[in-house]
Amino acid sequence: MKKLYTFLFLLIATSCIAYGANITFKVDMSSVVPASEIVIAGSFNDFDGDENEDNPGLPQWSDSGLILGDEGNNIYSITLDLVDGDYQFKFLNGIGGWETIVGDCTTEGNRTITVAGENMEVGPVCFGTCESECTSAPLSVTFRVDMSNEFVSGDGVTVTGNFASLVGFSDWTPGQIFLNDDDGDDIYSVTFDNVPPGTYQYKYINGIGWPDAENVPTECNAAGNREFTVSGDNTIVLGNVYGSCDPIKSNVTFIVDMTNETVNGDVSVTGDFASLAGFSDWTPGQIVMNPIGGSSIYTYTVQLPAGNYQYKFINGESWEGVPPGCASGGNRQLTVGEVIDVQAGPICYASCVAECPDITPINVTFRMSFGEDDIPAASGLFVAGSFQDPAWQKNELELTDGDGDGIYTVTVPNMFQYQYEFKFFNGTNGDPTSDEFAETFDFATGGCGASNPFGSNRILNLEGVTEDTQTDIYEFNSCELLNVGITEVFEQRINVYPNPVQEVINIDFDATTSENLNISLMDITGKLVYQKAGVKGTGVQIQRNDLPSGTYLLNLSSDNVIIATQKVLLD
After folding, report:
1. Structural domains present in the chain
2. What tens digit of pLDDT does each residue of 99-152 get?
3. Among 58, 117, 309, 474, which has the minimal tally of Cβ within 10 Å of its Cβ?
4. Under a CB-based contact definition with an 8 Å cutoff, are residues 354 and 343 in contact?
């Protein structure tokens, strides 16, 4: 009987034991400037809220009690002996520097873990995110406030919020972060270069105490505060009128030089900024620019808040083609930041240079072929683009195949050294503005065109081209190039190797030629990047030099007639 009692006692005692485990917490602090102490806080003392100590000796939500050790490479860790249960926790960048977690890995804004009797490692996790590693770099954030409607306190203008501990101050503590007005324009500002990704709240203070803090209007506040999010790769410039939702606006003047253009009606500018200036985004003819004193320089000024914008100039109804060297997505770029007066330009229309260069009229032959599944329409094959006057007349320039070789051509005189957009049209209904028979391929994605607010077009870049030229031979509705061999007149073949190319392009002829041949290399936009005349013998070599990686077209010509074309890839 004594043995039975002993067994029952041990069984009951065992059933009361709360099993636990060693839990190692790790955090990656590479997205922030780590404080001298990295802390973890959570429901470690009483995870279930029954006011009984589940883990005696561990603090409950203390911002200073549990300091992590530095493992190197910005990884910090701590191991805790925890009984089984469901816990919530957060990391802190220094005492009081609570992380604001961006993502869907939280409960009530906190991280969570379930301990179930087994040792485990939690993380590393990126501080302030749900990611396992820090992939987003800290960004520069500028705080700006317009105090022109206020009597500025003699103590100065300050800002605070839950971002402050990440930049060396204490969160929500007035009188620490001062803004300055160096140029006396009543705009006070301060910039921090290492604010990690996340969503933050803040407030401006006309002085150094909470009684002097602004009241943020309901329509633009978050729990009574202002709010901003750090993400992506653009710098952030915040700017508002003190105590108001109104943004600080800069005077932005767009300036374009039309010296080399025949102006057809109004010169206008538009983009994704237009709705902020009282117009419609990407709508030509609304923001009409004015010439300066009857010159070829056109300007227009709007007021815009800080931000990153895209835009284009328009000559009548013809959108400019922006060269790749100064375009993003086929458009010009504009950043409005801290400066009150901003100039977008001067820029030469359809170019990347400020002053319009001297231009030489040249003749350009557009060439096209059909793939196996396409046939020419009985009503004709046409080309149209921004080079026409008026632009995009879709039944005016007809391509024909006079020699029956399957290559359709038309020559356009008096084109200049710009970048143009164009398309082919297989047929016409008599309406020069109709897109019924237009190519529908995504030329930007295909690598031979650029996107615009309404789709994409082919690109012809004539910058630097001073002699008559012809386009690549593309298949209709495609970026595929027609493989053209040496004509029978020359009975010549070429071998280009290696392809793809690393440093040197080797071009071998099958037989020695006494003809004076010309070799040219063009990039995918049609821009001439290399030319060598008077080539004879059995072959030639071209040094790559600084040519960037991409697809190029190698042309072999004689007496201005292309007799061979081959696509070349540069790694």
Report:
1. 19-126 (2.60.40.10), 139-241 (2.60.40.10), 249-348 (2.60.40.10), 362-475 (2.60.40.10), 494-570 (2.60.40.3080)
2. 878 677 888 889 999 999 899 999 899 888 888 877 666 788 999 999 999 999
3. 117
4. no
